[in-house]
Design brief:
By secondary structure, this protein is of the alpha+beta class. The chain is elongated.
Length: about 130
């Protein structure tokens, strides 16, 4: 369980996206660079990467985010920023550029036990007294 100034949360998202035409372009040094860029973005945006798998033809990202970030925003960040950064830093020709397919998958993961809810209520009541 994590906290911000005004929220206690456990929000974990599984996001998956593909290179355009599902080309197997994410291998070797390219995969390492994309992985590093994804970690840079997470650090910049205050999001925690719980698990990251970069496969040659898709990316699996499991991330924990504060409630202020919508899943669509996370997907836009983790798809849009890496392709721009990678293409700017490393792609010398059009053939070397990374382009993503249009869509993505986003799912939620996590659980809330009754003990978690009771703990939150108790801590909230103690803070108001």
């Amino acid at each position: 369980m994590k906290t911000t100034r005004h929220a206690t949360y456990t929000l974990n998202y599984h996001i998956v996206w593909l290179p355009k035409y599902r080309n197997s372009v994410l291998s070797g040094e390219v995969a390492d660079r994309v992985r590093d860029i994804l970690h840079e973005i997470a650090d910049d945006k205050g999001v925690e990467i719980l698990d990251l798998t970069v496969r040659p033809d898709h990316v699996h990202l499991f991330v924990s985010s504060p409630p202020k970030h919508a899943p669509s925003l996370l997907a836009n960040w983790f798809k849009g920023i890496p392709s721009r950064k990678y293409n700017h830093r490393y792609a010398d020709t059009e053939d070397e550029k990374i382009r993503w397919a249009r869509g993505y998958y986003a799912g939620t993961a996590g659980h809330v036990s009754s003990e978690t809810v009771q703990d939150y209520i108790q801590r909230h009541e103690e803070g108001e007294q």
